[in-house]
Amino acid sequence: MSVEANTRAIEKTVVTDFSDRMSYGSYLDLDTLLSAQKPVSTPEHHDELLFIIQHQTTELWLKLVVHETLAARAALDADDIGTALKCVARVKHIQKTLTEQWSVLATLTPTEYSQFRDFLGNSSGFQSYQYRAVEFVLGNKNAGMLKVFESDPAAHELLSTLLHEPSLYDAFWQSLARQGYDVPASALDRDVTTAYTFNEDLMPLIKFVYENHTEHWAVYEAFEEFVDLEENFQLWRFRHMRTVLRTIGLKSGTGGSSGVGFLQKALELTFFPELLAVRTEIGR
Predict the structure, then answer these.
(1) Is 117 annotated as contributing to ligand binding?
(2) CA distances (Å), origin 5, targets 11, 77, 111, 130, 218
(3) Is position 53 annotated in a ligand binding site?
(4) What is the rounded distance in angstroms from the CA atom of residue 268 to the CA atom of residue 198?
(5) Distance CA 187, CA 26 (A)
(6) What is the pLDDT of residues 235-264, one digit of tens each?
(7) What is the pLDDT of residues 121-169, one digit of tens each?
(8) Which residues are substrate-binding (predicted)?
(9) Has 51 been labeled as part of a binding site?
(10) Rounded distance, CA 31 to CA 157, Å?
């Protein structure tokens, strides 16, 4: 079928009557979604819509990251590493999208942002419970963070639950132990309510897998997928810090943090420290 006068003919089979059918808009509940952007600046500043949409889309992607990481953990609980890694692979693609999104917000100049920043009050991305949920599932837990969400019972309950549950990494070691790998007791019996920290006892097993990866390919692949996951997370944190620096310099954050300095400290946090440390040991 050719195109004439730069107009594409609508095929006769295309559905156009949605009086009693589900449409694209109704399926996605676009009326609700597109009415959720409510600028608070007075008079309404042109660039506030960008700021709102940037953070709302981030929250939508974080919702999917939580969904996928919890599914990955459940798969590991069932000793299904393949399905777990499929979920992790999807998360990695989402992370790349989230990281690239910072370039859109970076088009907001300091002058433009300063014209509506005061209207935000103390609202801050620091208060994103879904971001904290991702950190908790990946093992970077901090019980002190729950205080931020005491006024939001649903968010507080979710984070409290995740705080007391094994992380994705914990579930991985439990799965390997059930498969016959010599996982040290210190990795299986740790206090899961605390942030995961480097465990020297795991190094012999990890080094063994890397040096014999052909015979232990599934575990070796999982190690590398986790390393990708952490690296992507760190890249996201770095782009976040640099975007904030570009936009507000060294001002304090709206939520009361020191701003860039606080974000820089996040770059020192880790999820899978042994998988990075083993790089120094390989080939020795």
Answers:
(1) yes
(2) 16, 59, 46, 49, 56
(3) yes
(4) 13
(5) 48
(6) 999 999 999 999 999 999 899 899 999 999
(7) 999 999 999 999 999 999 999 999 999 999 999 999 999 999 999 999 9
(8) 51-55, 113, 117, 254
(9) yes
(10) 29
Look up residue 81 and give its two tokens. 């590493």
Q: Which residue has the tokens 């952007």?
A: 37
Nearest alpha carbon to residue 167 among 200, 144, 143, 134: 134
Residue type, 182: D
Place of tokens 């974000």: 263
